[in-house]
Recover the amino acids of this structure.
């Protein structure tokens, strides 16, 4: 949350130059406050795990949040109990007339397929188009980021020689972006995917800005220049043991996976994983909620249209 100080205080200019959010007394006293409406389209097969991961990331803020869970109607999950889906999830038809301050589109284990081959792709396209008029800011994660970049901006994904799995160093490319407030110059984040996007495709697109990337994992944080769409190609929400569970699952399937890089202590898969990205994850989601949603969303959500 912002520091509320007089605009004429010398510290104000210094803090702003350091990318620290300050608010004048006038703005603070005239703000209207209400709970934020956030929804998540959960495309992950282990939906209960993903719900917990994302909600943990959204919880480190004093902002009140009303949270809706959305599932596709054209693809039924086989890894989540039916009674859980019936009790806690809605479909797009249930919410298409509603408005949200923020919307999250998760990853999905379908990156080897062409987008149009995914059975729920037409439904996802309809939802992504709907977010333009019914959502103030949309956060896309991993495959969701690739799908959003492809649909909205024509950015192609490319198959890697082998699965990218591990925890990688990233560096900031634009230090004064609100989304990166509080970030170190170099920070870590997990990746787990078979495809990538090319940095040059992002850099040369007039409507996109790359905020952070990794020399090993490629583009990481990308935003539309109007701030209404954000794309994160990794999984900062992952738990400490998520990459380990994925690795041993693939071992049992006989896929002969590589050991996740920079993850297990001494790179030994039988040792304890090292949690080195939680602070970055907290900052990423908190900054998104504060600067890209709370500080700029209209008080009356119907004004989005």
């Amino acid at each position: 949350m912002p520091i509320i100080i007089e605009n004429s205080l010398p510290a104000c200019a210094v803090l702003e130059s350091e990318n620290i959010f300050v608010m004048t007394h006038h703005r603070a006293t005239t703000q209207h406050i209400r709970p934020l409406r956030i929804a998540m389209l959960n495309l992950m097969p282990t939906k209960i795990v993903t719900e917990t991961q994302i909600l943990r990331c959204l919880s480190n803020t004093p902002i009140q949040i009303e949270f809706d869970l959305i599932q596709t109607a054209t693809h039924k999950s086989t890894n989540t109990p039916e009674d859980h889906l019936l009790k806690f999830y809605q479909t797009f038809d249930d919410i298409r007339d509603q408005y949200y301050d923020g919307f999250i589109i998760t990853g999905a284990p379908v990156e080897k397929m062409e987008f149009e081959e995914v059975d729920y792709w037409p439904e996802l396209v309809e939802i992504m188009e709907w977010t333009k008029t019914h959502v103030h800011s949309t956060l896309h994660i991993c495959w969701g980021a690739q799908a959003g970049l492809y649909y909205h901006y024509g950015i192609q994904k490319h198959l890697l020689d082998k699965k990218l799995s591990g925890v990688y160093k990233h560096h900031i490319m634009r230090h004064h972006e609100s989304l990166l407030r509080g970030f170190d110059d170099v920070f870590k984040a997990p990746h787990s995917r078979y495809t990538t996007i090319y940095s040059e495709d992002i850099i040369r697109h007039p409507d996109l800005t790359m905020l952070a990337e990794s020399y090993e994992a490629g583009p990481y944080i990308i935003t539309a220049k109007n701030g209404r769409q954000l794309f994160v190609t990794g999984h900062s929400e992952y738990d400490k043991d998520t990459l380990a569970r994925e690795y041993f699952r693939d071992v049992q399937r006989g896929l002969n996976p590589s050991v996740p890089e920079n993850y297990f202590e001494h790179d030994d898969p039988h040792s304890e994983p090292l949690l080195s990205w939680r602070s970055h994850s907290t900052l990423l989601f908190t900054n998104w909620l504060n600067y890209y949603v709370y500080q700029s969303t209209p008080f009356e959500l119907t004004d989005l249209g």
